[in-house]
Design goal:
By secondary structure, the protein is an alpha/beta fold. 37% of the residues lie in helices and 26% in strands. α3 runs parallel beside α6. The chain is globular and about 45 Å long.
Length: 234
């Protein structure tokens, strides 16, 4: 579904990615792990057209993303829940969700997905007419994911969905990520909570300073002694 081949990218003279190659197969959860500054968000920016690579290729569902603009990529079937949520705090929950479907023309399908998202996130259903800026941090994260799902993406990009949230809320969100995947959506999960990410993912990549240093089935990566020492606190 998604294939990055030897991607390099820079911010001016600062190299963010150096020869990154990864794949997200259809129907799988793939996690991209690494410390702050490793290049995880830069990878997502390449996929969504916010950062054009200086080398390599990015292909999604047969489409070349390498020089595509964001407004052309999202309708291809890519949805993103960005780091920091970036919801519209002055709009209601319902208005935020409907904005997630702004590229769609199928009104009946949008209504069906609106109801589906509220079923996925009962907390949002209870607050559907509430101004988004008054939601808790966990509820805002749910809204950001729900808004991304309103585009009915084939591939859902999640950038640090656990950041700053209580453990109970994090577990709830990760259960929903598994449910969304079980219903057919592929997921690329960028996450610092390596323990949780490796439990839900099928495959894992680890970035260090813009380079991939390890990859493999998530269950195997989780048992790697170096991963345990550096990322799992064991």
């Amino acid at each position: 579904m998604l294939k990055l081949q030897n991607i390099s990218a820079s911010y001016g003279k600062i190299r963010a990615l150096d020869g990154v190659s990864l794949e997200v197969p259809d129907g799988k959860i793939v996690t991209l792990l690494g410390a702050n500054g490793a290049g995880k968000t830069s990878t997502l920016k390449v996929i969504t057209g916010l950062l054009h690579p200086t080398g390599g290729t990015a292909v999604f569902d047969g489409h070349d993303l390498t020089r595509s603009a964001t407004h052309a990529i999202i309708p291809m079937g890519v949805g993103i829940s960005p780091e920091g949520r970036q919801i519209f705090t002055h709009l209601t929950v319902a208005e935020n969700l409907k904005l997630g479907a702004y590229t769609r023309k199928d009104g009946a399908g949008v209504k069906k997905d609106f109801d589906w998202v509220l079923k996925l996130f009962p907390r949002l259903a209870e607050r559907v007419n509430q101004v988004a800026g008054t939601l808790s941090g966990g509820e805002q994260q749910m809204l950001a994911i729900g808004r991304a799902l309103m585009a009915r993406p084939k591939l859902l990009l999640l950038d640090e969905p656990s950041l700053g949230l209580a453990p109970l809320i994090v577990r709830e969100i990760f259960e929903i990520i598994k449910q969304v995947n079980a219903e057919g959506t592929s997921v690329l999960l960028v996450e610092q909570n390596a323990n949780l990410a490796l439990r839900v993912a099928h495959y894992a990549y680890i970035l260090e300073v813009g380079r991939l240093v390890m990859e493999g089935p998530a269950a195997e990566v989780r048992q790697n002694p170096e991963v345990k020492r550096i990322y799992l606190g064991g």
